[in-house]
Specification:
This protein has about 500 residues and is of the alpha/beta class. The chain has helices spanning about 10-15, 25-40, 50-65, 105-115, 155-165, 180-185, 220-230, 250-255, 280-295, 310-325, 345-355, 360-370, 380-400, 425-430, 435-440, 470-490, and strands at about 45, 75-80, 115-120, 170-175, 190, 215, 265-270, 300, 405-410, 445-450, 460-465. The chain has one domain (about 5-270, about 400-495): Alpha-Beta Complex (Amidase signature (AS) enzymes). About 40% of the residues lie in helices and about 10% in strands. An 11-stranded mixed β-sheet has the order 1-3-2-4-6-5-10-11-9-7-8, with helices on both faces. Helix 4 links the parallel strand 2 (about 75-80) and strand 3. About 55% of the residues are buried.
Length: about 500
Amino acid sequence: MTDITRLSAADLADKLASREISSVEATRAHLDRIAAVDGDVHAFLHVSDRALDAAAEIDRRRAAREDLGPVAGVPLAIKDVLVTTDMPSTSGSKILEGYMSPFDATVVARSRAAGLVPLGKTNMDEFAMGSSTEHSAYGPTRNPWDLDRIPGGSGGGSAAAVAAFEAPLALGSDTGGSIRQPAHVTGTVGVKPTYGGVSRYGAIALASSLDQVGPVTRTVLDSGLLHDVIAGHDIHDATSIPDAWPSFADAAREGARGDVLKGLKVGVVKELPDSDFQPGVAAAFRDSLAKMEAQGAEIVEISAPHFEYAVAAYYLILPAEASSNLAKFDSVRFGMRLDVPGGTVEDVMSATRDAGFGPEVKRRIILGTYALSAGYYDAYYGSAQKVRTLIQRDFDQAFAQVDVIATPTAPTTAFKLGEKIDDPLSMYLNDLTTIPANLAGVPGISLPVGLAPEDGLPVGIQFLAPAREDARLYRVGAALEALFVDEWGGLLLDRAPELKGGAR
């Protein structure tokens, strides 16, 4: 019998629809997998005790011949940045330990309505601040390819859960690459939608002008299926785009079977030379471009002169917005509260925030508060926003010449746990190629394109498209994925080593 946990979400959905497999069977198989391997991986912070009941309800509705959605009964992992009514929502922080939300995030509510079965909440860097998931207050997540290495961040838990076959689908959030960079280092697929294309309501805010919720999966089609569920206008989110969106799953199917690469103009940024990347990462990127060129794509060198300032601008804008957003965790309105006998409100607030926030969060709050302070606002935050505008113009000029932009998703493969934890600047540079998309609000996708020969670890390629052209990414991503699947005889994850809980 086929291992249920090895099925793609699309294949599992087909078997559920035909009643070859029940949702209870699928959910139990993934819960068993979590029990077997998550002690080593630590992808989950909380495993739902209601998952089997939710799955049984889907089976009941299917037996009653109710009209169910295309992914009804498929299990789902949820990044802990998204609030849920039936599981704690901590955002990876001690200050929110045990917090129960009175409402579901919109994307969670839509997932439940579509019949997806929540398995649990996944680990993350505290308040989504980090590129390694080492900044979680509840301990690091480990990369299923090598348990001594990081799974990326901030959404390393969601990526690791999918890579370890603990869940076929996961929700993540991407502020500067937190979906795409973990996908790169775990051999999975991650999509950052157009800003405003997916509701942020109920996503615990890091930087409101940058945050975006999106899918983490094992195939491009699976991402399209999940994206179809969560996309669309939400009256609760003032930044939500009221546009009607096409089916992203249909776009992926078109890419996999069509001739979409022929005549496609793919931009390569000349300001990102191979020397900026690990040799195996650069080689995989060039190999991917060669495959696309062989299918009729045209590789075009473009200039994006302000991309080199993206990291600096981002690490002024993000801390400033984070400083404002995290002010609500003040021992009065949200989160933990420490008693300070005889102390003032300010004493209680100071003691609570000191105990509840980790070092990376404190670092960014201090930086952001300074950047917003009187006398420095124009010099720092204001200047960073001007750079943001220049980066947006770089994208506009580039997309006047090409259909998509391609880059390596990250400069290196997964580094070892602890290797960069005390070097924040080095950690920040992991987002070198992903940050520009968040500053401009354009969509991006990362998909696996090989293993670096120097360490045998996964490498991803990133495609960026104009705002609102998410479907274009699915067509292009699925077309390239099909070439690699044919070459490898399956998914890249099939080549990963075994985990303790059983053969992969």
